[in-house]
Amino acid sequence: MYSTIITGGLHGLDCYLARVEVDCSRGLPGFEMVGLLGSEVKEARERIRVALRNAEIELPPMRITVNISPASLHKAGTFYDLPVAAGILAAQGLILSEDVERVMIAGELGLNGEVRPVRGILPMVLEARRQGLERCIIPEENVEEARMVDGIRLQGIRELRELADAIREKEGRAPNRKRKFSDQAVQGPDFGEIRGQEGAKRAAAAAAAGFHHMLMIGPPGAGKTMIARCLPSILPPMSEEERLEAASIYSVAGLPAVSFLRGGGRPFVAPHHTVTGHALTGGGQVPKPGAVSLAHRGVLFLDELAEFKRATLDLLRQPLEEKQVRIIRSSGTYCYPADFMLVAAMNPCPCGYYPDRNRCRCTPGQVARYLSGISGPILDRMDLCAEVERVEFAALMKQEGGTEMNSAGLRTAVMEARERQECRFRQDPLLRGSIRYNSQMGQRELNRFCALGMPEQQFLELMFDRLELTARSCHRLLRVARTLADLDGEERIGKVHLSEAACLRLTAGKYTGALQA
To answer: Which of 381, 307, 396, 376 is nearest to 347 (CA)?
Structure first.
């Protein structure tokens, strides 16, 4: 007999619906699986055979042939176990074919018949809803993650022996209703816990408001890492579309995605400086998302920037510009989104105290070698550079004052600046929501939304000549100035905003001179 079961397949972050075709016929007993399968899919034969026996489901001796289509796409993963078992039961007449016509089934089987969770369940359920399916039968442990998808019924099972009953039920959990996620600030470190460093806090607020990349330079213990870890507390909450997008990446990577269901904040990813290129940007024999994709719509924090290998850092140049990572393998091309805010922190020299010659004992050659690990193109992509200086004792012992520089106050200012940006970009029908932050503006948007008066234009021309700015540096300076004006509630960019943007833009030149080229 012949049967067909619908399941999901993953190709990078994209999901497609696959068909598991099972034919049970007389002949020499055997179990064959075809369809351009990876090793873990081929191994499913033994898992399914033993799981069916331990679930007290006896199969008569016959030839079983399984084809997973489309056969032109490489199949990998363990989520084909449960649909293949369901196809065998349907081919034996234990399950009616009409009961599984509009049902997607996915899950891994243990030898004892246990149904175990799988990665990538969220994009599979999203694709099933898009294709008009009615139900999804998945592992019970994946149900909470799948609940992020509205408008489709879910049935979770824990054991293989529950499969037939679940298919016959035709009910499952009711389709989810639209949910309102909490807009409350993320719990965690608060900017109010940081004493002093008002300039760095202002730079962090500007970075959060315009989604600008930021670099912090200063001695050890000044608070650079603390400032970076406070950033999620002032970032605006994600929309439901962004939440599903970020959760899908975590689901494909096999990481918990339920935090996005519970109204958590934006992603914050901080890889160690020994991270490999594949771990940072994604890759492997079966490509998986890297840190830049896990930080999508959130913050990628690189602490001790100068300690990273130069070749590893240079891998960020393309994702920073294109907002995506493209991985080419013999099995196909995989594309992962990578629209993140890069935040980096570094010491100015090996000991960390340059240019304070009273404490720094590094030679000029040691300082040059230390900083040479960061290429100029990477530094040039940093819109903001904040100098985090040593905190004085009086500031350290000062009690917390007003709310302007704690996370609640900064978050309010950031939210208001974001609203001004969204209102401004909505006025242009050609944009159609393609631009949401000031950092995304191109030449056309700069001409329209960053128009300067004659005094401001003359001031910018003076800076352009004296600081020897390039065209890219000038455009980045204008984007930052536009964000600073939004933070101050100003419709037009003033000289004060241009001056502040120049200071934040060119601070790194005090140490490296790289941004002045």
So the answer is: 307
Burial classification of residue 313, based on how many CB atoms lie within 10 Å of its CB (0-12 exposed, 13-18 middle, 19 or more buried): buried
Alpha-carbon distance 12 to 33, whole Å?
A: 23
Do β-strands 299-302 and 341-346 pair in parallel, antiparallel, or remain unpaired?
A: parallel
Comparing CA positions, the residue from 430, 427, 450 lying closest to residue 438 is 450
Amino acid at 172: G
Return the pLDDT at 168.
Answer: 85
Average pLDDT, the chain: 87
Assess contact for 251 and 116: CB atoms under 8 A. Answer: no
Helix orientation angle between 407-426 and 198-210, rounded to the nearest 10 degrees: 30
Q: Whole-angstrom Cα distance, residue 370 to residue 350?
A: 6
Query: Counting Cβ atoms within 10 Å, is residue 495 exposed (0-12), middle (13-18) or buried (19+)?
Result: middle
**Sorting pLDDT into bands at 50, 70 and 90, what band is 404?**
low
Least confident of 84-88, 281-285, 457-461, 495-499: 281-285
Smallest Cα–Cα separation from 249: which of 354, 154, 145?
145
Taking a C-beta distance cutoff of 8 angstroms, is the pair 341, 298 a contact? Answer: yes
Q: What's the CA gap between 38 and 245, in Å, rounded?
A: 27
- Of 176-185, 318-327, 433-442, the poorest mean pLDDT is in 176-185
Residue 16 makes CB contacts below 8 A (sequence gap 6+) with 8, 9, 70, 73, 127
Phi and psi, residue 335, nearest 5°: -120, 125
81 vs 11, residue with greater confidence: 81
- Residue 449 zone, left/alpha/beta (φ > 0; ψ -120 to 50; rest): alpha
Q: Which residues pair with 31 in a beta bridge?
A: 64
Helix (H, G, I), strand (E, B) or coil at 75: strand
Q: How far is CA 276 from CA 289, 330, 399, 496, 506, in A?
A: 13, 21, 43, 42, 30
471-487 helix and 198-210 helix, angle to the nearest 10 degrees? 100
pLDDT in tens, 347-389: 989 998 887 878 888 888 888 888 888 888 888 888 999 988 8
* Closest alpha carbon to 257 in 174, 142, 179: 142
Give tens-digit pLDDT for 63-91. 999 999 998 888 888 999 999 999 999 99
CA dist., res. 110 & res. 141, Å (int): 14
Which residue type occupies 387?
E
Neighbours of 408 (CB within 10 A): 14
Q: Where are the alpha helices (DSSP H) in 282-430?
A: 291-294, 310-314, 317-322, 364-371, 376-380, 393-397, 407-426
pTM of the model: 0.87
For 306-337, write each residue's pLDDT tens digit: 999 999 999 999 999 899 999 888 777 889 99
